Amino acid sequence: MTSFFERLEARAHQIDSLLCVGLDAHPELLAEDDAKAAYRFCLSIIEETSPLAAAFKVNAAFFEAFGADGWAALRDVIAAVVPDIPVLLDAKRGDLGSSSSAYARAVFDELGADAVTLSPYMGRDALLPFLERTDKGVFILVRTSNPGAAEIQDVRLASGELVYEHVAVSVDGWGSNVGLVVGATEPEAMAAVRALVPEAWILAPGVGAQGGDLAAAVGAGVRADGAGLLVPVSRSIAQADDRAEVANELRDAINEARQDQPPTDDLDRLARELFEAGCVGFGEFTLKSGAVSPFYIDLRRLASHPKVLAHVAAAMNRLVAPLDFDHLAPIPYAAMPIGTAMGLSAARSVVYPRREVKDYGTSASVEGVFSHGERALVIDDLATTGASKFGAIAQLKEAGLEVEDIVVLIDREGGAGTELAEAGYRFHAVMTVTDLMGRLERQGVIANIEGQSVAKFLNG
Questions:
Q1: Hey, which residues does 143 pair with through a beta bridge?
Q2: Which of 97, 286, 345, 390 lies 20 to 30 Å from 225, alpha-carbon distance?
Q3: Nearby residues of 319 by Cβ (< 8 Å), 6 or more positions away
Q4: DSSP 198
């Protein structure tokens, strides 16, 4: 079964377009104020712009205003789109229990839409009937394009996140068929959301009548591969004398804007953020071994930088996605925030070996809920040698858990991988120190001489 986003990816690639043509039957644009006129209006746009549309977005409100006739016309408009082009219903649904189930049936089964916009305000359980339709797509409101959105969506939480940032990270973990709605009117918010959810598709309304800058929105919202963004445009196309020409110009403008963006790399960004958060320092540092190092990595600081921590968790979760395990097992203390952030964003269970075993209460050496024989994925911030990992592994195994893989953010290249492999464990790292320094140097964050001193220390 082909999913909505697989179809969307295929269509966007096939015609080299991120343009989403809006079908908004505003009363003032219709020849007559009735459902038949709304149908004819939308049908003409479909016929003129189909070769250029990655998707169509139909606004349900303008059809619902006509009652039963409008509902029938809406169904006919959706059916008029050729099967290769996904159709998104802009309906902003969101309700509880049986009401949500009825809305899902109406949108997907009765109307035949391929995707729908949803409100996250009542939480994931309210949207389950939509999320469970994995062949369909949902675009969940994150940061909307209306002027009053800031009243609620830009409120800063105690965690330091803005509300829309919290929503973006949360809903991205709700299912494989989830996209996000972020208004093109706020490119800074768009960039923040893209940094938090680097892989998700974003629907970016607001270009045109609402004043959103197309180039700024595209630059902030496209994925590293130049895709992952749908730009809906309605009135500018609908009111044009030559709709195909305007749609073609918009498609080309979007493509020009995404080509103008320098290629980005999530790990380049993460390396820079670690440096800016003070997690990577240069100077003279005496290590536990007594050696004097020209650099120092302190990932305990991540707990005070929630955005960077979220990006670390995203990078770690991408790395571990192919692995088979039941629980994340961060090693106290530095890895605890990382493991917790990974668990929250990916909805994975977290257990952890205690640094000090209590001689009262349960006297548990491993905290969390688990069963004998389940697999624990050991998480740590850094690895120099394998010594610190073996103690945690032994503790987990003694409690009845199996351990096959160890994952760290940064490998200091002190032989940990070799030691763990010789003991029968698989070792994974998001970056090595060499890779980290190379990324910082290529971006001009550090000077070549600093990179050379690190390389000399590692090789010496």
A1: 182
A2: 345
A3: 407, 428, 430
A4: T
How much is the pTM?
A: 0.61
- CA-to-CA distance for 313 and 325, rounded, in angstroms? 17
* Confidence check: pLDDT of 234 > 60: yes
Strands 352-353 and 366-367 come out as: antiparallel
The owner of tokens 């080309």 is 252
4-260 to CATH, choices 3.30.930.10, 3.20.20.70, 3.40.50.970, 1.10.540.10: 3.20.20.70
Known catalytic residue at 307: no
More confident of the two residues 175 and 1: 175
Smallest CA-to-CA distance from 282 within 453, 35, 108 is with: 453
287-322: b or e for each residue (b if 16 or more CB lie within 10 Å)?
eeeeeebbbebbbebbeebbbbbbbbbbbbbebbee
What does the pLDDT read at residue 87? 97
Q: How confident is the model at residue 457 (pLDDT cuts 50, 70, 90)?
A: confident
Long-range contacts made by residues 187-192, C-beta under 8 angstroms, separation at least 24?
Answer: 187/213, 187/216, 187/217, 187/219, 187/220, 187/221, 188/220, 189/143, 189/154, 189/164, 190/143, 190/217, 190/220, 190/221, 191/220, 191/221, 192/162, 192/165, 192/307
Of these residues, 92, 136, 389, 456, which one is catalytic? 92
Q: Does the bond joining 425 to the residue before it have cis omega, within 30 degrees of 0?
A: no
Q: Which CATH class is domain 266-459?
A: alpha beta
Opening angle at CA 216, ends 210 and 221, nearest 5: 100
| Predicted confidence (pLDDT) per residue in 349-375, tens digit | 999 999 876 665 556 889 999 999 999
Q: So what's the pLDDT on residue 359?
A: 61
Provide CB contacts within 8 A for 263, sequence distance 6+: 224
Strand partners, 56: 21, 87
pLDDT at 357: 66
Q: At what angle do helices 124-131 and 97-104 cross, to 10 degrees?
A: 30
What is the residue extent of each domain of the chain?
Answer: 4-260, 266-459
